[in-house]
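[Help] Beginner question about ligand-bound structures

Sorry if this is basic. My supervisor gave me a protein sequence and a SMILES string for zinc ion and asked me to "get the holo structure". I don't really know what that means in practice or what format the answer should be in. Inputs are pasted below exactly as I got them.
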Amino acid sequence: MSEGKADKMDLKERALQASRERYEKLEIEKLKAADQFAQKAIKEFRGVFGDVEELSVKELSRVECEIIADGLKFRARKESSEYYIYIKFYLHVRCRKCGKWFTHPVQNLADVGDLLSHPPVCEDCQMLAKYGTTEVKSEAERVMEMLREIIEIVSD
Ligand SMILES: [Zn+2]
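Answer (accepted):
No worries, everyone starts somewhere. Holo just means with the ligand present. The predicted complex, written as structure tokens, is below.
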């Protein structure tokens, strides 16, 4: 009886150990994949934006990393279309309306230059701008309603 119990314990312990080992192996593979992606992204980055003096990379996952080049912060992300896999770059930019940081896709140096000389507006502010126009419309509708009421009163 006690022997059987010990065997069970062993199996349980071995199972837990196997689970831990598999988890550790997966974690190591994840780190390796993240490192491989970061190296690929740096190579691609230099190919697209040219060489930079100061470049640092922060690995995030096997499909994403952060690149800081000459003081500009970029995000590189692995994307895939139906036929091929590629790396897409995003520049961290500050919304010119609310000052919030967000990422904006960039394909080449000129795109980066555009964003630097004309800071874009974030999605929230774009939505707000849209809301603004609908607000104006509803206000116009309210004025029309008031006018209609006045006309009704006058004609009565
Ligand atoms: Zn904004």
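A couple of things worth pointing out: The radius of gyration is 29 Å. The longest helix spans residues 2-49. Feel free to follow up in the thread.
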